[in-house]
Structure formats: structure tokens, C-alpha cells
Amino acid sequence: MKIQLDTTKKTIKVEEAVKLSKFMETVKKILPNNEWKDFTLETNTTIQGWSYPIYIERWTQPWYEQPWIHYCNNTSYSLNSGVYNIEV
């Protein structure tokens, strides 16, 4: 599954058909604490600028070690601004 996550515009693009259960499982893992509820899903789109994707084969890293997460301390985090290409 190819996902483009834009933390500035708060959009998620998915280029191909995907099972909703797999999509939700992935989104909940990459955007913790219900952060995904603030994002808009863009459909019927072609992802532009697909380069240097972040490959997630297994969820071995904790969510706070992802490049789009800025982990402040034990109780808080913020999203780094930018566009992230993620392939699951």
C-alpha cells in the first residue's frame, strides 16, 4: 500500500484500492492517539512526487520513532511538518 501523508495540509492519499481494515490498521499505527481523525482522505488521486519512500515491512519501531513524529518527552509529541511517502 502506498500512502502519502501530508502533515501540513493534514491529508492522506492512497493511490490504489486497499481493504478498509488494512488501511485503518495502518493509519492508526502511523498516527497515534486518534490524530488520524483530523486528516482528510483524498481519493481517486495519483500521488505526485513519489520518491524516497519510507518502507514499513513490520512494526518493529515504536510510533514515536517515525520521521513525521517529534517526540518531546514521555507525555507529549507533535507532528513534523512535511510530506512523507510511506509504503507498507
Describe this structure in words.
- The structure is a single chain.
- With 88 residues, the chain is of the alpha/beta class.
- The protein has one domain.
- It has one helix at residues 20-30, and strands at residues 2-6, 11-14, 40-42, 54-55, 69-71, 77-79, 83-87.
- The strands form two sheets. A five-stranded mixed beta sheet has the order 3-2-1-7-4, with no helix packed on it.
- It is globular, with a radius of gyration of 12 Å.
- The N and C termini lie close together (5 Å).
Reconstruct the topology from this structure:
Layout (H helix, E strand, L loop, with lengths): L1 E5 L4 E4 L5 H11 L9 E3 L11 E2 L13 E3 L5 E3 L3 E5 L1
Parallel strand pairs: 2-3, 4-7
Antiparallel strand pairs: 1-2, 1-7, 5-6
End-to-end separation:
5 Å
Q: Could you say which overall geometry the principal axes of the C-alpha atoms support?
A: globular
Number of domains: 1
Q: How much is the average pLDDT?
A: 83
Radius of gyration, CA atoms, in whole angstroms = 12 Å
Order of helices and strands: EEHEEEEE
Structural class: alpha/beta
Approximate helicity band = 10-25%
Can you count the beta strands? 7
Which regions are unreliable across 5 or more consecutive residues at pLDDT < 50?
none
Strands of the largest sheet, in order across it?
A: 3-2-1-7-4
Strand content: 25-35%
Question: Count of helical segments?
Answer: 1
Main pleated-sheet profile:
5 strands, mixed
